[in-house]
Amino acid sequence: MPMEPEKPSARSIWLWEEDEDETKGEDGFRPWLDPYPISTKHPLGAVLVCPGGGYRTRAPHECAPIAERFNRAGFHAFVVHYRVTPRNHPAPIRDASRAIRMIRHNAQRWNVAPERVAVCGFSAGGHLAASLGVHYDREFLKGSRPLDQASNRPDALILCYAVLSTGEYGPLGCFKNLLGPEPSQEELRLMSLELQATERTPPAFLWHTVEDATVPVENSVIFAKALRRHGVPFELHLYPKGRHGLGLAAQDEHVASWMTLCCQWLRAMGWPAAS
Predict the structure, then answer these.
(1) 56 strand-pairing partners
(2) What CATH number is associated with residue 98?
(3) What does the DSSP 8-state code read for residue 175?
(4) What are 40-52's pLDDT values in tens digits?
(5) pLDDT tens-digit readout, 136-150
(6) Number of domains in the chain
(7) Among residues 101, 193, 87, which one has the least CA distance to residue 142?
(8) Omega cis (within 30) before 86
(9) Chain-centre distance of CA 185, in angstroms?
(10) d(CA 210, CA 40)
(11) Bridge partners of 82?
(12) How many CA atoms lie within 13 A of 222 on its CB side?
């Protein structure tokens, strides 16, 4: 039995107003954003965290612990608690898109550098993060409210043992949760992100374990090859050992190096961080 995700707290902000259609659904779930800003006098880079869970739930160990670790590295962090099945596409990506816009809309309030906002996703959350990286300009992500005028394009993607392809190596159950029990070939192609990458896709940091039996490592390799084809910068780390869903991988010092490497990568690209 999977653990329930965190409940909204005093820090939480609803993503959608009560009069917006996004708040309505038979499951009763209302998506929210948890901010983890750092007290600072100068704008800092930020990371939006998308926990995994197969588009069926949201894994707690990929929520607050990840945000707090980015805080310790000197970055603002935010966790988006997005909609999952029975709320299908485009509900999750609309939530992630709204979260980025909310961060940029409130950049002065939180002292965020608005041109340095990354999205970090785990497993299906990695698919969500990368989906925003390739589909940010789709019509279904546009809106007419003032907040919708802020850019929803991530400045960087951090993809952790991510689901990225609907092809030979794609976990079909995940995509049935996202698209419904009988997704069309057109829908599957739209969500096979190696086919959707372009030269406008943001730079990416990817890591995966070769032993991953749930989401094959080929997902990260295939997506990295697509980025290479389009001239998009990326950094890819493949660890020989480790199961799926490790999060911070605190029990494995070698795999846990991904966070240090990721933060070095962000700083090298100009992400301002607290000392």
Answers:
(1) none
(2) 3.40.50.1820
(3) H
(4) 999 999 999 999 9
(5) 999 999 988 889 999
(6) 1
(7) 101
(8) yes
(9) 24
(10) 39
(11) none
(12) 21
